[in-house]
Specification:
The complex is a heterodimer of chains A (96) and B (217). Chain A is an all-alpha fold. Chain A is built from five helices and no strands. Chain B is mainly alpha-helical and 217 residues long. In chain B, helix 1 runs parallel beside helix 3, helix 4 packs parallel to helix 11 and helix 10 packs antiparallel against helix 11. Classes of the chains: A mainly alpha (96), B mainly alpha (217). At the A-B interface, helix 1, helix 2, helix 3, helix 4 and helix 5 of A face helix 1, helix 2, helix 3, helix 4 and helix 5 of B.
Chain lengths: 96, 217
């Protein structure tokens, strides 16, 4: 991966922060609803995409790891979810 | 009750946030370095300072997503700065120039502290932001340095979906959010299973589709 996409990611991230704090009024109406609802489904979609990869195939230990992570979401702790997911993956990788 | 946040309260909160951010920074550094190289990984943390955006960028690139899909996903992620920034802005009395400077430190954690710890929000955002930024850079450096020591590659593949599951859970405020996250995941899975070439744009499109509220009749 080259530096160009990284630079654009930086520009987009900095620009949205700048706009939000220094220039733009708060979003209203339907746009506000979409913005408020976006993070959770976006991360859910990205979880599915990164699990399946570009080939559309599923690795069993990875499925187990993700399953353990899902179970750990009740803790509402990102560290616990990471630990559960990685632990489940390592265990399944040993067994499978 | 005084509305001023005591220095000790602010320091405790900032250090706690900084410790967690250091860990995530190390995870990012270790997983991004094989793809970006150590130097570009460090530069990305210096310039972007956003775990969500950086992890998304690396995860999509690792799965073969093109630049357009990466930037599309990062742009959608960046939209969450709008309501966060609006909430923080309500509590800041400074002029536009200082607000522009403070906007650099607007991440989920520092925004939450600025909103919850009371006045003055400028001080909270600045101090917690500096701590968070140094923690992120330090963690990234640790992760990059550790790549040659630990065999992280097998873990890197499972780390991204697990991380996104965790982020989805953290950002789901209620049951409807959970259902939207699950729905987006299932829809993305179905599309990619049927049409693997759909890739990252499919994920972004499914997420956007779930986020748009249905018009009431």
């Amino acid at each position: 991966m080259t530096a160009t996409p990284v630079l654009w990611v930086a520009i987009i991230t900095v620009a949205t922060r700048l706009a939000a704090v220094a220039f733009l009024p708060p979003p209203e109406g339907r746009l506000a609803q979409v913005v408020a609802r976006l993070p959770a489904p976006l991360f859910g979609a990205l979880a599915a995409y990164s699990l399946l990869g570009s080939g559309g195939e599923v690795d069993v230990p990875m499925l187990v790891g993700v399953g353990c992570a899902v179970l750990a979401t009740r803790s509402r702790s990102l560290l616990v979810v990471l630990a559960a997911g990685i632990g489940g993956f390592l265990l399944a990788d040993l067994v499978w | 009750m005084s509305l001023r946040t005591s220095s000790r309260e602010l320091a405790t909160a900032s250090v706690s946030v900084g410790a967690a951010i250091t860990v995530f920074g190390a995870v990012y550094g270790a997983t991004a370095a094989p793809l970006l190289g150590g130097r570009l990984t460090l530069v990305s943390s210096v310039l972007v300072f956003s775990g969500a955006a950086q992890f998304t960028m690396v995860a999509l690139a690792a799965n073969g997503a093109g630049t357009a899909a990466i930037l599309g996903a990062v742009t959608l992620l960046g939209l969450r700065h709008l309501p966060l920034g609006a909430l923080v802005r309500q509590r800041i009395t400074s002029g536009r120039g200082r607000r522009a400077f403070l906007s650099w430190f607007l991440v989920d954690e520092t925004a939450s502290l600025s909103i919850s710890l009371g006045h003055p929000a400028e001080r909270t955002l600045l101090i917690s932001g500096v701590v968070a930024y140094l923690a992120w850079l330090g963690g990234t450096a640790v992760g990059v340095a550790g790549v040659s020591v630990a065999a992280v590659e097998p873990l890197a593949e499972v780390l991204f979906p697990v991380l996104f599951v965790g982020l989805a859970a953290l950002t789901a405020a209620d049951r409807d959010d959970v259902l939207r996250a699950v729905g987006a995941a299932l829809a993305t899975g179905a599309v990619i299973w049927l049409w693997p070439q759909a890739g990252a744009p499919a994920a972004v499109a499914m997420a956007l589709g779930m986020a748009v509220p249905r018009r009431r009749r």
